[in-house]
Design a protein that fits this description.
CATH class of the largest domain: Alpha Beta
InterPro entries: D-isomer_2_OHA_DH_cat_dom, D-isomer_DH_CS, D-isomer_DH_CS1, D-isomer_DH_NAD-bd, FDH_NAD-dep, NAD(P)-bd_dom_sf
Binding site for substrate: 122, 146
Subcellular location: Cytoplasm
Domain D-isomer specific 2-hydroxyacid dehydrogenase catalytic: 63-368
CATH superfamily of the largest domain: NAD(P)-binding Rossmann-like Domain
CATH topology of the largest domain: Rossmann fold
Main location: cytoplasm
Number of strands: 17
CATH architecture of the largest domain: 3-Layer(aba) Sandwich
Bound molecules: 1,4-dihydronicotinamide adenine dinucleotide
Helix content: 25-40%
């Protein structure tokens, strides 16, 4: 049966697979629910698309051999979705930021048996972490699994915007050849000021990769000082957000989404930025106010915005990010919009790493072993990570 969410532009097969083996009555057998994105025909064409409903993180047979019940679905957005049905009695839920199943307070309330949430990837904001803490539900993620993948995407997107690649490519593919139309908005990255909001694994890798570009200055804003980054790249820490934003030609956003960063980059913060700056956000869509970004782009206050995340995924067809375009007009298409679907952290290489990481977390869980400290977001009713805000 096919279901069509009103939010979705394309039809996502309501495909759920349940693998049961032996009896599920053995006391140590658990129900595991995974919500992944659908690969359709591409899953067969590319079996290394592991993080999909079809390829099941490569762990289906392994779980089956142990007698566990493994339910995999992409159907997540409606109250009668497979996700909402199966979360009620699952002990472990595996989700992915690329097609997030939102474990809100309401959903967690219905999940009476839930003990463990695993993020296949990095970024666990789709889980209400405060409620998870209250309920003593552990949240783990495969920390570091896709940070290089994202950093590469960020560097690419910065160049795509600064060099004005998108309208140039559109013009060319449509048979055009008008150098001036594109060149009037095309710059060098050399000599520009680039700063990262958040200087953890991804932010620091972005600045490391930008070092050979001879930028005028690399800066970062983070409540945690990163001395290694300063040493490696010469990046300067700026402690005042207004000063940080005010100096930048390029802002790259690389912090988690939580109550302290939700809507952080709004009309007021954008007004602190220089006219003509570029913004790249591969962190989370809700860190910026999408309507304010669109207004700043269309007024010409910012020259470009790119990234791969939106506040709801998939976004509704009317979402500002689908429609925003720069104040500078192009005959063959739009400028200033370097958005993609959520792909930066789900390269084939990244999928191999986060699939292996999920298996390792499950192995530890089944064996009663401690998880790698870096993978622990919340456990035992408290935040283990220092990345989701300064907490007591
Ligand atoms: P990380 O935990 O290594 O670093 C995050 C940094 O952000 C920390 O240094 C933390 O102190 C800082 N931070 C937190 N709140 C801040 C604030 N208010 N202002 C400034 N800095 C703040 O995390 P990592 O691996 O670098 O990932 C960062 C985020 O990127 C993830 O939480 C996730 O949301 C996103 N991500 C996106 C992916 C994609 O495919 N688009 C894939 C992987 C991660």
């Amino acid at each position: 049966m096919l279901a069509r969410s009103p939010l979705l532009r394309t039809t996502i097969p309501r495909y759920t697979s349940t693998l049961r083996h032996f009896s599920t009555t053995k006391p140590n057998m658990v129900k595991i629910l995974a919500v992944l994105y659908t690969a359709g025909k591409y899953g067969e064409e590319q079996p290394r698309l592991l993080g999909t409903v079809e390829n099941k993180l490569g762990i289906a047979d392994w779980l089956k051999e142990q007698g566990h019940e493994f339910v995999v679905t992409a159907d997540k957005d409606t109250p009668d979705s497979e996700f909402r049905k199966h979360v009620k009695d699952a002990e472990i839920v595996i989700t992915t930021p690329f097609h997030p199943a939102y474990l809100t307070a309401e959903v967690l309330e219905s999940a009476k048996n839930l003990k463990c949430c695993i993020t296949a990837g990095v970024g666990s904001d789709h889980v209400d972490l405060d409620v998870a803490n209250k309920r003593n539900i552990s949240v783990y993620e495969v920390t570091g699994s896709n940070v290089v993948s994202v950093a590469e995407h960020v560097v690419m997107t910065i160049l795509v915007l600064v060099r004005n690649f998108v309208p140039a490519n559109r013009q060319y593919l449509e048979g055009g050849w008008n150098v001036a139309e594109v060149a009037r908005q095309s710059y060098d990255l050399e000599g520009k000021v680039v700063g990262t909001l958040g200087s953890g694994r991804i932010g620091s890798r972005v600045l490391q990769r930008l070092k050979p570009f001879d930028c005028a200055k690399l800066t970062y804003y983070d409540y945690q000082r990163n001395e290694q980054l300063e040493k490696d790249t010469g990046a300067q820490r700026v402690e005042d957000l207004k000063q940080f934003l005010g100096e930048l030609d390029v802002l790259t956003i690389n912090c988690p989404l939580y109550e302290g960063t939700k809507g952080l980059i709004n009309a007021e913060k954008l007004s602190w930025m220089k006219k003509g700056a570029w913004i790249v956000n591969t962190a989370r869509g809700a860190i910026v106010n999408a309507a304010d970004i669109r207004a700043a782009l269309e007024s010409g206050h910012i020259a470009g915005y790119g990234g791969d995340v939106t506040d709801r995924q998939p976004p509704e067809p009317s979402h500002d990010f689908y429609h925003m375009k720069s104040a500078v007009k192009y005959e063959h298409g739009v400028g200033g919009n370097a958005m993609t679907p959520h792909i930066s952290g789900t390269s084939i290489d990244a999928q191999a790493r986060y699939a292996a990481g999920v298996k390792e977390i499950l192995t530890n869980y089944f064996g009663g072993k401690a998880q790698l400290p870096a993978n622990v977001i919340v456990e035992g009713g408290a935040y283990a990570t220092k990345a989701y805000g300064q907490r007591k």
